[in-house]
């Protein structure tokens, strides 16, 4: 790993032009440089803090932040950290810090780039922050996955509180390697001991299933993963995870009414049935069809409350369903989505009837039907109707567009030809001829634009593919290398290496090319173009952000016309007003969307939402 002095050969002038809040530290955690916005946000002057130990500036940062810095220096990208302003002396606003490795021209990691963004109050960002936190802690206690790290030189073992829970140990227990291994059963102990030896001496990682005897004597199955880390040719530490993958204990099922009602068709009907105790909501019995539907064994449900297995849609209606059972003896069918053991989402229609046993105890007999196929057919029919309506509207709009554009050119040609016919003077006739040639070029440009629009619409039914975003970006960077060199432009890529998007290859290439060339084309005369690419993830979309420091756009004035055909917003002779129009239709064709943030003379950020389906 290269030290800070190796970074001195790199010019960091570009960071002064960055509109974002960015700070750069080296491998010794010393501050190298910071953008003007970062200095303003934290009320710090680069002249006073350059070369200082970063953690001395923020002494209250948790050990969790230091661990994230180390992970970033190991090569992990887009690591997030929540900065709590109230715990620190600088800045009065909470923020999210994005950590990415800083590499030299040879790909060696020479530090960390930290990008600071304000915390959004939207639910999607909260989910993303929580997801990142879970990843960095090697999953959550809900999933029963804990992370650990063993310092080979100091022979010190550290792990997260989740590991204590898996072992059945108190939170105060201080682990060491010998004790940790001793909890495994004899056969598994040999496997783990061998795996650790091979990791340290041969650099071989492991991924093993083993049996662990908890502190309370219960034997459980765990999945343990270890990955050795080397420095100067020697294994200095091992990082890994441990996951509880099987619970051998089974719930004790207390049946209050021994005289269970006999249902002659309970195991013969072609749909799922379940008997639920009306007083407490616990499952008393389920049939085989119900087990097939959920892909779980019957024992997975018996003795457990039905609310543990339904989604929020049904939970929110539970009071209403109980009222219906009390008043009418049954409730109307309820539709909801259920995720079975195979992680497949299936659509269920549930109905229920109140029944009494011979001892007078009330139960609910529920039916569960798999309506996934029916739901898909209904959805496909609605999509077909919607698609047909949209295509008809697009066809009508395109017809109007062709009619209007070509009519304008035809009128222009007709008038010029009439003027030419009536003109006898040679000089004036030459002037009209030049105007006709110009009109011909404009007509060719219009036809070329219309052909591009047709090409977009004709590719809509092509199949999307899972594409490496960095691979596609590499090709585009090669294509615009001349432009970047001519304008002294710079592309800052913060996209994780593993990022993939579902897209049509030609469309993705076109979208990236259009966006990057626009950032260069509409640059400020007094600034070198800087383009920053980063990624966000949520449940439905992979979101590519392309931020520049260019001229920007007055969205209050031009926001409604931004993606219109032949619309331009700057005095640029090369502008055709078709690039954003084509890009918008390409993203729409892939069931995605575009959002824009921009201010005049402060740059623009385009966010391309690539649909994961």
From TrEMBL:
Q: Where is the Histidine kinase domain?
A: 401-613
One GO MF annotation is: protein histidine kinase activity
Q: Which UniProt keywords apply?
A: Kinase, Phosphoprotein, Transferase
List the catalytic activities from the record: ATP + protein L-histidine = ADP + protein N-phospho-L-histidine
> EC top class, in one word?
transferase
Keyword presence, Kinase: yes
Looking up CDD domains in the UniProt record yields: PAS
**What Gene3D superfamilies does UniProt report for this protein, alphabetically?**
Histidine kinase-like ATPase, C-terminal domain, PAS domain
Q: What is its EC number?
A: 2.7.13.3
Q: PANTHER family this protein is in?
A: PAC DOMAIN-CONTAINING PROTEIN (PTHR43304:SF1), PHYTOCHROME-LIKE PROTEIN CPH1 (PTHR43304)
Q: Write the protein's name.
A: histidine kinase
**Which organism encodes this protein?**
Maribacter caenipelagi
């Amino acid at each position: 790993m290269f030290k800070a002095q190796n970074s001195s050969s790199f010019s960091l002038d570009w960071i002064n032009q960055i509109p974002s809040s960015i700070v750069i530290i080296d491998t010794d955690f010393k501050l190298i440089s910071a953008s003007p916005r970062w200095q303003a946000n934290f009320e710090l002057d680069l002249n006073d803090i350059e070369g200082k130990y970063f953690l001395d500036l923020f002494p209250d940062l948790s050990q969790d932040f230091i661990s994230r810095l180390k992970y970033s220096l190991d090569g992990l990208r887009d690591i997030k950290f929540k900065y709590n302003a109230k715990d620190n002396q600088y800045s009065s606003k909470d923020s999210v810090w994005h950590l990415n490795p800083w590499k030299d021209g040879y790909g060696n990691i020479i530090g960390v780039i930290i990008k600071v963004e304000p915390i959004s109050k939207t639910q999607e960002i909260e989910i993303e922050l929580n997801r990142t936190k879970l990843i960095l802690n090697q999953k959550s206690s809900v999933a029963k996955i804990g992370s650990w790290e063993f310092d080979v030189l100091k022979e010190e073992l550290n792990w997260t509180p989740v590991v204590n829970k898996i072992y059945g140990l108190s939170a105060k227990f201080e682990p060491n390697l010998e004790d940790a291994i001793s909890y495994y059963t004899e056969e598994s102990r040999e496997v783990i001991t061998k795996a650790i030896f091979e990791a340290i001496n041969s650099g071989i990682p492991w991924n093993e299933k083993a049996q662990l005897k908890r502190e309370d004597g219960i034997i459980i199955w765990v999945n343990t993963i270890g990955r050795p880390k080397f420095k100067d040719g020697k294994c200095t530490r091992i990082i890994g995870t441990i996951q509880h993958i099987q619970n051998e204990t089974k719930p004790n099922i207390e049946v209050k009414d021994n005289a269970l009602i006999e249902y002659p068709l309970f195991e013969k009907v072609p749909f799922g049935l379940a008997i639920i105790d009306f007083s407490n909501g616990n499952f008393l019995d389920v049939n085989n069809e119900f087990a097939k539907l959920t892909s779980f064994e019957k024992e997975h449900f018996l003795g457990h409350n039905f609310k543990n297995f339904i989604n929020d849609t049904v939970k929110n209606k539970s009071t209403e369903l109980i009222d219906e059972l009390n008043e009418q003896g049954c409730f109307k069918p309820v539709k909801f989505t259920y995720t079975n053991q195979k992680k497949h989402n299936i659509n269920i229609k549930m109905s229920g009837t109140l029944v009494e046993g011979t001892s007078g105890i009330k139960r609910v007999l529920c039916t569960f039907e798999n309506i996934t196929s029916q739901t898909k057919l209904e959805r496909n029919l609605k999509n077909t109707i919607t698609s047909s309506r949209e295509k008809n509207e697009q066809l009508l709009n395109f017809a109007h567009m062709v009619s209007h554009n070509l009519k304008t050119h035809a009128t222009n040609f007709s008038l010029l030809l009439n003027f030419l016919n009536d003109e006898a003077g040679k000089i004036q006739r030459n002037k009209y001829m030049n105007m006709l040639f110009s009109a011909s070029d404009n007509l060719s440009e219009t036809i070329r634009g219309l052909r591009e629009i047709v090409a977009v619409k004709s590719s809509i039914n092509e199949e999307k593919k899972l594409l490496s975003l960095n691979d596609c970006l590499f090709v585009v960077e090669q294509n615009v290398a001349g432009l970047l060199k001519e304008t002294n432009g710079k592309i800052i890529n913060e996209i994780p290496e593993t990022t993939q998007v579902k897209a049509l290859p030609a469309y993705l290439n076109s979208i990236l090319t259009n966006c990057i060339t626009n950032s260069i084309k509409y640059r400020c005369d007094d600034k070198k173009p800087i383009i920053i690419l980063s990624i966000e993830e949520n449940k439905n979309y992979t979101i590519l952000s392309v931020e520049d420091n260019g001229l920007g756009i007055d969205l209050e004035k031009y926001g409604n016309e931004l993606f219109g055909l032949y619309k331009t917003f700057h005095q640029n002779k090369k502008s055709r007003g078709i690039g954003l129009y084509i890009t918008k239709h390409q993203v729409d064709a892939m069931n995605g969307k575009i959002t824009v943030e921009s201010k005049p003379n402060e740059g623009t950020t385009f966010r391309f939402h690539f649909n994961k389906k």
